[in-house]
Specification:
Helices cover 48% and strands 10% of the residues. The chain is of the alpha+beta class. The chain has 2 domains: 169 residues, Defensin A-like (2-Layer Sandwich); 163 residues, Serine Threonine Protein Phosphatase 5, Tetratricopeptide repeat (Alpha Horseshoe), CATH 1.25.40. The strands form 4 sheets. Strands 3-4-6-5 form a 4-stranded antiparallel sheet, covered by helices on one side. Strands 7-8-9 form a 3-stranded antiparallel sheet. Helix 14 packs across helix 16. The longest helix is centred in the last third of the chain and has 35 residues. The termini are far apart.
């Protein structure tokens, strides 16, 4: 059954077709694997090497892949349904086959390993731009260009050729693509730059394409950075921030610093580096100066707040004579500026740690911080007691009791007044005067 290459197109007469993926599960237990039976035919319809979609499946599923070129077996470890692989193929097509300009699958990929970018040119509409390098497959494409053969493990295999454009023995693909009218293959090893019309890779042309695609492409970097060790990524962000500081752009570049730390996936640890580069003996002034930058990392992020406290411990150790007496003031500044939350500070104060500094220095810092920690704890307790008092003051039952007492008192007073009136003797004025004449 043939499917539209772009399955979002429902037109039955859509001319770009591909076979439906056929998958076969083999093996049992830890050795179970899925063989994409017709991967070569599917890849051919997409004009891509079969290793690309197979490797893409491995990246998306977190599974290892194997290539058996001789038997045309492309394997993804684990058990995977054909429908799942078909859905992943749609994503691959969207990212690495369809033209961003016209949505036609007539694009050509050209990797530039030195520049760490992959260009994409459309033969249908003439679109020329850069592939989004955020996917792990781009690393594989850079190491294994479309015209480059690879071995069973996916590693690239150098293609033998002879210099000077003379005839020689080449790969089967080269032989088929470069047959002369006379029937003898000719391997082209040197290309005139003027004939390379697919894409202009001059610095001016690259910058022009970057402007066309958008401002974001200017900062395009390889996703391989995320595959480096944490130490390597920490060193990268350290150099990045240090450069901004040397250029005097540390405050204006606060958003860029956050973005770079997120790209390297070390945002939680960045405050530790910031404290090392930005803070010294004048830490109280510097906390106010760099408050906005620090808040971009620590706001509602307890891990980043703990990293900052660890960095400040390092600064205190470095300038112990000047800063140890000011420990309480430093922590109060962190609290007053809302850089570190009360809960994080109190949690820090519960234990002495040698994660960032020696245990002796950590203990000394905790001892010097006790006045502030005690004040913070008492302020928290007073706040709780105050809240409890407010609840009693506005207790509805208390108000009802007061009103009932007042009503009883008023009723008692009224009863006493009535009783006094009843017990008071009435004065008798004697009989009324009688008119004798009237009798």
């Amino acid at each position: 059954m043939a499917l539209n290459v772009n399955r979002s197109v429902a037109d039955a007469y859509y001319r770009y077709k591909m076979p439906k993926i056929v998958a076969k599960v083999e093996g049992k237990g830890n050795g179970i694997k899925t063989v994409v039976v017709n991967m070569v035919d599917v890849a051919k319809s997409l004009d891509r090497p079969p290793t690309y979609p197979c490797k893409f499946f491995g990246c998306e599923l977190g599974a290892q892949t194997q290539f058996d070129f001789k038997n045309e077996r492309y394997i993804v470890n684990g058990s995977h349904e054909a429908s799942k692989l078909q859905d992943l193929l749609d994503i691959f097509i969207q990212k690495f086959v369809l033209c961003p300009g016209c949505d036609n699958p007539e694009t050509v990929l050209k990797p530039y390993p030195k520049k760490q970018v992959i260009s994409q040119t459309c033969m249908a509409c003439g679109y020329s731009g850069m592939v989004n390098m955020s996917h792990k497959l781009t690393t594989f494409i850079l190491k294994n260009p479309p015209e480059q053969a690879v071995d069973a493990s996916g590693a690239n295999v150098p293609t033998p050729h002879k210099k000077g454009g003379k005839k020689g023995k080449g790969t089967e693909e080269e032989t088929n693509n470069h047959e002369n009218d006379g029937g003898s293959p000719e391997i082209i090893t040197e290309v005139d730059p003027a004939d390379d019309w697919s894409v202009d890779v001059s610095e001016e042309a690259v910058l022009a394409r970057q402007r066309e695609v958008g401002e974001g492409i200017a900062g395009l970097t390889m996703n391989t950075d995320q595959e480096k060790t944490e130490k390597e990524r920490v060193d990268m962000i350290f150099e990045y921030i240090r450069k901004k500081k040397d250029e005097g752009k540390i405050i204006k570049a606060d958003k860029d610093i956050v973005a770079e730390s997120e790209r390297l996936d070390i945002r939680d640890k960045a405050p530790l580096i910031l404290s090392e580069l930005l803070l010294d003996q004048d830490i109280l002034k510097q906390l106010k100066k760099y408050r906005t930058l620090l808040l971009r990392f620590t706001l509602d992020n307890k891990k980043a707040q703990k990293s900052l406290l660890g960095g400040i411990e390092c600064i205190i150790q470095l300038h112990s004579d000047a800063l140890l007496p000011k420990v309480s003031n430093i922590f109060k500044a962190l609290y007053d500026l809302d850089i570190v939350e009360e809960e994080t500070i109190l949690d820090w104060g519960k234990r002495v740690s040698k994660k960032h500094v020696s245990k002796e220095i950590s203990a000394a810092i905790h001892e010097k911080a006790q006045p502030f920690l005690k004040w913070l704890q008492e302020a928290e307790e007073d706040s709780e007691d105050s809240d409890e008092g407010l609840e009693i003051e506005y207790d509805d039952r208390a108000r009802v009791n007061d009103l009932t007492s007042q009503a009883k008192q008023q009723s008692k007073q009224q009863a006493e007044q009535i009783k006094q009136k009843q017990s008071t003797p009435v004065e008798d004025d004697g009989p009324d005067d009688v008119d004798i004449d009237a009798i």
